[in-house]
Amino acid sequence: MSAGPAEVQVVELVGADGLRLRLLDIGATWWSLQVPVPGEPQPREVLLGGATPDWHLRNHAYLGATVGRVANRIAGAAIDRDGQHWALQPQPGSPHQLHGGPDGYDRRRWQLCDRRTDSASWTLHSPAGDQGFPGALDIAVTVTLCGGGVIEQQFQARCNAPTPVCLTNHAYFNLDGRTGDVRRHRLQIDASHVAPVDDSLIPHGVLDPVDGGAFDFRTLRRIDDRAAGIYDHGLLLTPQTRPMQHPAAVLVSADARLWMRLFTTMPSLQLYTGGHLAGEPARDGGALAAHAGLALEPQWLPDSVHHPEWPQPPVWLLPGQVWQHTLRLAFDTPPA
Fold first, then answer.
1. CATH of the structural domain 10-184+258-332, one choice from 2.70.98.10, 3.90.320.10, 3.90.480.20, 3.30.930.20
2. What confidence tier does 157 reach under pLDDT thresholds 50, 70, 90?
3. 61, 78, 139, 210: which has the highest count of C-beta atoms within 10 A?
4. Which of 233, 291, 297, 307 is catalytic?
Protein backbone atom coordinates (compact mmCIF):
# COMPACT_ATOMS: atom_id res chain seq x y z
CA MET A 1 0.00 0.00 0.00
CA SER A 2 3.01 2.32 -0.22
CA ALA A 3 2.47 5.38 -2.38
CA GLY A 4 3.03 4.87 -6.08
CA PRO A 5 5.05 6.97 -8.52
CA ALA A 6 2.50 9.79 -8.89
CA GLU A 7 3.78 13.31 -8.24
CA VAL A 8 4.11 14.17 -4.56
CA GLN A 9 1.63 16.83 -3.48
CA VAL A 10 3.07 19.84 -1.63
CA VAL A 11 0.88 22.09 0.53
CA GLU A 12 2.28 25.35 1.89
CA LEU A 13 0.81 27.06 4.95
CA VAL A 14 1.69 30.68 5.69
CA GLY A 15 1.01 32.41 8.99
CA ALA A 16 0.60 36.11 9.68
CA ASP A 17 3.55 35.76 12.07
CA GLY A 18 5.85 34.75 9.20
CA LEU A 19 5.89 31.01 9.86
CA ARG A 20 5.98 29.01 6.64
CA LEU A 21 5.26 25.26 6.78
CA ARG A 22 5.37 22.96 3.77
CA LEU A 23 3.60 19.60 4.00
CA LEU A 24 3.58 16.52 1.76
CA ASP A 25 0.78 14.05 1.07
CA ILE A 26 3.32 11.22 1.48
CA GLY A 27 3.12 10.39 5.17
CA ALA A 28 1.28 13.65 5.90
CA THR A 29 4.87 14.83 6.27
CA TRP A 30 6.28 18.08 7.60
CA TRP A 31 8.84 18.78 4.88
CA SER A 32 10.00 22.31 5.69
CA LEU A 33 9.41 24.83 8.48
CA GLN A 34 10.85 28.32 8.25
CA VAL A 35 10.78 30.44 11.40
CA PRO A 36 11.60 34.18 11.46
CA VAL A 37 14.19 35.23 14.04
CA PRO A 38 14.36 38.94 14.95
CA GLY A 39 17.48 40.61 13.59
CA GLU A 40 18.16 37.94 10.98
CA PRO A 41 17.54 38.71 7.28
CA GLN A 42 16.26 35.24 6.43
CA PRO A 43 14.04 32.84 8.40
CA ARG A 44 15.63 29.72 9.85
CA GLU A 45 14.88 26.30 8.38
CA VAL A 46 14.37 24.27 11.56
CA LEU A 47 13.38 20.85 10.11
CA LEU A 48 15.43 18.14 8.46
CA GLY A 49 13.97 17.11 5.12
CA GLY A 50 14.85 15.62 1.76
CA ALA A 51 16.24 17.77 -1.03
CA THR A 52 13.07 17.21 -3.07
CA PRO A 53 9.54 16.07 -2.18
CA ASP A 54 10.06 12.90 -4.24
CA TRP A 55 12.83 11.77 -1.91
CA HIS A 56 10.22 11.14 0.77
CA LEU A 57 8.87 8.26 -1.32
CA ARG A 58 12.09 6.51 -0.24
CA ASN A 59 12.35 8.03 3.25
CA HIS A 60 13.66 5.42 5.69
CA ALA A 61 14.43 7.86 8.52
CA TYR A 62 10.79 8.99 8.98
CA LEU A 63 11.85 12.63 8.47
CA GLY A 64 8.80 14.71 9.44
CA ALA A 65 6.35 11.87 8.78
CA THR A 66 3.19 10.79 10.57
CA VAL A 67 3.92 7.33 11.96
CA GLY A 68 1.51 4.57 13.00
CA ARG A 69 -0.59 2.50 13.54
CA VAL A 70 1.60 2.28 16.65
CA ALA A 71 4.61 4.56 16.96
CA ASN A 72 7.88 3.13 18.30
CA ARG A 73 8.69 -0.55 18.88
CA ILE A 74 6.53 -3.61 19.50
CA ALA A 75 8.62 -6.48 20.85
CA GLY A 76 8.49 -9.66 18.83
CA ALA A 77 6.17 -8.02 16.27
CA ALA A 78 3.18 -9.65 17.96
CA ILE A 79 0.23 -8.60 20.14
CA ASP A 80 -2.40 -10.44 22.17
CA ARG A 81 -5.82 -9.56 23.58
CA ASP A 82 -8.65 -11.64 25.05
CA GLY A 83 -7.04 -14.90 23.98
CA GLN A 84 -6.41 -13.75 20.41
CA HIS A 85 -2.96 -13.44 18.87
CA TRP A 86 -1.84 -11.28 15.95
CA ALA A 87 1.51 -11.57 14.19
CA LEU A 88 2.60 -8.15 12.91
CA GLN A 89 4.96 -7.25 10.09
CA PRO A 90 8.48 -6.87 11.53
CA GLN A 91 11.15 -4.55 10.19
CA PRO A 92 13.55 -6.17 7.69
CA GLY A 93 16.31 -7.93 9.59
CA SER A 94 14.61 -7.47 12.96
CA PRO A 95 12.24 -9.57 15.08
CA HIS A 96 10.43 -6.40 16.19
CA GLN A 97 8.08 -3.90 14.58
CA LEU A 98 8.92 -0.19 14.43
CA HIS A 99 6.54 2.72 13.75
CA GLY A 100 3.72 0.55 12.43
CA GLY A 101 5.75 -1.74 10.20
CA PRO A 102 7.88 -1.57 7.05
CA ASP A 103 4.88 -0.24 5.09
CA GLY A 104 3.59 2.08 7.80
CA TYR A 105 1.59 5.27 7.50
CA ASP A 106 4.77 7.27 6.81
CA ARG A 107 4.88 5.64 3.35
CA ARG A 108 1.20 6.14 2.44
CA ARG A 109 -0.37 8.79 0.25
CA TRP A 110 -2.78 10.67 2.53
CA GLN A 111 -5.85 12.41 1.11
CA LEU A 112 -6.05 16.18 1.44
CA CYS A 113 -9.62 16.89 2.56
CA ASP A 114 -9.43 20.56 3.60
CA ARG A 115 -6.97 23.32 2.81
CA ARG A 116 -6.85 26.93 3.96
CA THR A 117 -4.15 29.59 4.10
CA ASP A 118 -3.07 28.55 7.57
CA SER A 119 -4.33 24.96 7.93
CA ALA A 120 -4.61 21.63 6.14
CA SER A 121 -6.36 18.36 6.95
CA TRP A 122 -5.49 14.86 5.74
CA THR A 123 -7.27 11.52 6.03
CA LEU A 124 -6.15 7.91 5.71
CA HIS A 125 -8.03 4.60 5.76
CA SER A 126 -6.08 1.65 7.16
CA PRO A 127 -7.88 -1.67 6.50
CA ALA A 128 -8.10 -4.60 8.88
CA GLY A 129 -4.94 -6.67 8.69
CA ASP A 130 -2.81 -3.69 7.66
CA GLN A 131 0.75 -4.63 8.72
CA GLY A 132 -0.91 -7.36 10.79
CA PHE A 133 -3.06 -5.14 13.02
CA PRO A 134 -6.65 -6.08 13.87
CA GLY A 135 -9.53 -3.87 12.83
CA ALA A 136 -9.84 -1.08 10.28
CA LEU A 137 -8.78 2.42 11.32
CA ASP A 138 -9.89 5.78 9.91
CA ILE A 139 -7.55 8.66 10.69
CA ALA A 140 -7.76 12.44 10.36
CA VAL A 141 -4.82 14.78 10.89
CA THR A 142 -5.08 18.58 10.92
CA VAL A 143 -2.16 21.02 11.03
CA THR A 144 -2.86 24.67 11.89
CA LEU A 145 -0.69 27.78 12.12
CA CYS A 146 -2.31 29.47 15.12
CA GLY A 147 -0.38 32.76 15.12
CA GLY A 148 2.15 34.01 17.62
CA GLY A 149 4.70 31.41 16.53
CA VAL A 150 2.41 28.49 17.38
CA ILE A 151 1.73 25.34 15.31
CA GLU A 152 -0.85 22.77 16.38
CA GLN A 153 -1.35 19.26 15.01
CA GLN A 154 -4.45 17.27 15.93
CA PHE A 155 -4.83 13.52 15.39
CA GLN A 156 -8.12 11.60 15.52
CA ALA A 157 -8.79 7.92 14.84
CA ARG A 158 -11.80 5.58 14.91
CA CYS A 159 -11.85 1.79 14.61
CA ASN A 160 -14.36 -0.98 13.89
CA ALA A 161 -12.65 -3.55 16.16
CA PRO A 162 -10.29 -3.30 19.14
CA THR A 163 -6.83 -2.24 18.00
CA PRO A 164 -3.80 -0.53 19.56
CA VAL A 165 -3.29 3.04 18.35
CA CYS A 166 -0.49 5.54 18.80
CA LEU A 167 0.01 8.19 16.12
CA THR A 168 2.68 10.86 16.25
CA ASN A 169 4.81 13.19 14.17
CA HIS A 170 8.46 12.26 13.60
CA ALA A 171 9.93 15.67 12.81
CA TYR A 172 13.64 16.20 13.35
CA PHE A 173 14.54 19.67 14.62
CA ASN A 174 17.69 21.74 14.41
CA LEU A 175 16.95 25.24 15.63
CA ASP A 176 20.32 26.59 14.48
CA GLY A 177 18.96 26.74 10.93
CA ARG A 178 21.59 24.35 9.60
CA THR A 179 22.57 20.72 10.07
CA GLY A 180 25.29 21.07 12.71
CA ASP A 181 25.43 18.82 15.77
CA VAL A 182 22.11 19.20 17.58
CA ARG A 183 23.65 18.00 20.83
CA ARG A 184 24.90 21.56 21.34
CA HIS A 185 21.29 22.63 21.87
CA ARG A 186 19.91 22.94 25.37
CA LEU A 187 16.93 20.81 26.35
CA GLN A 188 14.45 20.53 29.19
CA ILE A 189 11.94 17.66 29.53
CA ASP A 190 9.39 17.49 32.33
CA ALA A 191 9.76 13.74 32.83
CA SER A 192 10.02 11.72 36.02
CA HIS A 193 10.97 8.26 34.73
CA VAL A 194 12.78 6.58 31.85
CA ALA A 195 12.20 3.17 30.27
CA PRO A 196 15.65 1.48 30.14
CA VAL A 197 16.13 -0.64 27.02
CA ASP A 198 18.16 -3.62 25.81
CA ASP A 199 20.48 -3.67 22.81
CA SER A 200 17.50 -3.82 20.41
CA LEU A 201 15.88 -0.81 22.14
CA ILE A 202 13.10 -2.87 23.74
CA PRO A 203 12.29 -1.76 27.33
CA HIS A 204 13.20 -4.12 30.17
CA GLY A 205 9.82 -3.41 31.79
CA VAL A 206 10.82 -1.50 34.92
CA LEU A 207 10.64 2.31 34.85
CA ASP A 208 13.57 4.04 36.54
CA PRO A 209 13.45 7.50 38.16
CA VAL A 210 15.54 10.01 36.22
CA ASP A 211 16.82 11.67 39.41
CA GLY A 212 20.27 13.13 38.79
CA GLY A 213 21.22 10.72 36.02
CA ALA A 214 21.84 10.98 32.29
CA PHE A 215 18.08 11.11 31.60
CA ASP A 216 17.36 13.95 34.04
CA PHE A 217 16.36 16.90 31.84
CA ARG A 218 14.10 18.55 34.40
CA THR A 219 16.28 21.65 34.29
CA LEU A 220 17.46 23.22 31.04
CA ARG A 221 20.90 21.86 30.10
CA ARG A 222 23.10 21.17 27.12
CA ILE A 223 22.20 17.81 25.59
CA ASP A 224 25.74 16.45 25.38
CA ASP A 225 26.80 17.24 28.94
CA ARG A 226 25.83 13.66 29.95
CA ALA A 227 25.98 10.31 28.10
CA ALA A 228 27.68 12.15 25.20
CA GLY A 229 24.19 13.28 24.23
CA ILE A 230 23.36 9.89 22.70
CA TYR A 231 19.70 9.09 23.34
CA ASP A 232 16.90 6.96 21.88
CA HIS A 233 14.70 6.46 24.93
CA GLY A 234 11.14 6.90 26.14
CA LEU A 235 10.59 9.31 29.04
CA LEU A 236 7.42 9.27 31.14
CA LEU A 237 6.10 12.82 31.45
CA THR A 238 4.77 14.23 34.70
CA PRO A 239 0.96 14.54 34.95
CA GLN A 240 1.11 18.34 34.90
CA THR A 241 2.03 18.28 31.19
CA ARG A 242 -1.24 16.61 30.13
CA PRO A 243 -3.61 19.59 30.27
CA MET A 244 -1.16 21.33 27.89
CA GLN A 245 -0.85 24.27 30.25
CA HIS A 246 2.76 23.30 30.94
CA PRO A 247 5.36 22.41 28.28
CA ALA A 248 6.52 18.82 28.12
CA ALA A 249 9.81 19.95 26.58
CA VAL A 250 11.78 23.10 25.83
CA LEU A 251 14.48 23.15 23.13
CA VAL A 252 16.93 26.05 22.72
CA SER A 253 19.24 26.64 19.76
CA ALA A 254 23.00 26.57 20.33
CA ASP A 255 23.16 30.34 19.91
CA ALA A 256 20.16 30.76 22.28
CA ARG A 257 18.33 32.96 19.76
CA LEU A 258 15.42 30.58 19.11
CA TRP A 259 13.33 28.62 21.62
CA MET A 260 10.76 25.90 20.97
CA ARG A 261 8.25 24.74 23.57
CA LEU A 262 6.44 21.45 23.01
CA PHE A 263 3.02 20.72 24.49
CA THR A 264 1.26 17.36 24.19
CA THR A 265 -1.67 15.35 25.48
CA MET A 266 0.38 12.13 25.34
CA PRO A 267 1.93 10.54 28.45
CA SER A 268 5.52 10.12 27.22
CA LEU A 269 8.13 11.56 24.91
CA GLN A 270 10.68 9.64 22.85
CA LEU A 271 13.99 11.49 22.83
CA TYR A 272 16.14 10.58 19.82
CA THR A 273 19.31 12.52 19.06
CA GLY A 274 19.72 11.20 15.51
CA GLY A 275 22.61 8.81 15.99
CA HIS A 276 21.72 6.89 12.81
CA LEU A 277 21.13 9.86 10.49
CA ALA A 278 24.59 9.71 8.89
CA GLY A 279 24.33 9.40 5.12
CA GLU A 280 20.66 10.34 4.83
CA PRO A 281 20.05 12.96 2.09
CA ALA A 282 20.12 16.55 3.30
CA ARG A 283 17.98 19.43 2.08
CA ASP A 284 20.98 21.02 0.32
CA GLY A 285 21.59 17.87 -1.74
CA GLY A 286 24.45 16.60 0.40
CA ALA A 287 24.31 14.04 3.18
CA LEU A 288 23.38 14.42 6.82
CA ALA A 289 25.83 13.68 9.60
CA ALA A 290 24.95 11.78 12.74
CA HIS A 291 23.15 13.98 15.28
CA ALA A 292 22.14 16.53 12.63
CA GLY A 293 18.65 16.71 14.14
CA LEU A 294 16.65 15.88 17.23
CA ALA A 295 13.31 14.05 17.35
CA LEU A 296 10.91 14.70 20.23
CA GLU A 297 8.06 12.24 19.65
CA PRO A 298 4.97 12.41 21.90
CA GLN A 299 3.53 8.90 22.26
CA TRP A 300 3.06 5.93 24.58
CA LEU A 301 6.24 4.47 26.04
CA PRO A 302 7.91 1.95 23.68
CA ASP A 303 6.29 -1.51 23.64
CA SER A 304 3.41 -0.26 25.81
CA VAL A 305 1.09 -2.86 24.30
CA HIS A 306 2.96 -5.43 26.40
CA HIS A 307 3.02 -3.34 29.58
CA PRO A 308 -0.51 -2.49 30.77
CA GLU A 309 0.95 -2.01 34.27
CA TRP A 310 2.66 1.25 33.28
CA PRO A 311 0.97 4.46 34.55
CA GLN A 312 -0.57 5.68 31.29
CA PRO A 313 -3.97 5.40 29.56
CA PRO A 314 -4.96 2.17 27.76
CA VAL A 315 -3.20 1.55 24.46
CA TRP A 316 -6.17 -0.23 22.88
CA LEU A 317 -8.87 1.76 21.06
CA LEU A 318 -12.37 0.27 21.09
CA PRO A 319 -15.26 0.71 18.61
CA GLY A 320 -17.29 3.81 19.45
CA GLN A 321 -14.29 5.56 20.99
CA VAL A 322 -12.29 8.38 19.39
CA TRP A 323 -8.51 8.33 19.79
CA GLN A 324 -7.17 11.88 20.03
CA HIS A 325 -3.78 13.50 20.37
CA THR A 326 -2.87 17.18 20.23
CA LEU A 327 0.69 18.38 19.63
CA ARG A 328 1.52 22.08 19.96
CA LEU A 329 4.83 23.75 19.15
CA ALA A 330 5.49 27.34 20.22
CA PHE A 331 8.50 29.16 18.74
CA ASP A 332 9.84 32.24 20.47
CA THR A 333 12.89 34.36 21.14
CA PRO A 334 14.67 34.19 24.51
CA PRO A 335 12.44 35.09 27.46
CA ALA A 336 13.11 38.47 29.02
1. 2.70.98.10
2. very high
3. 139
4. 297
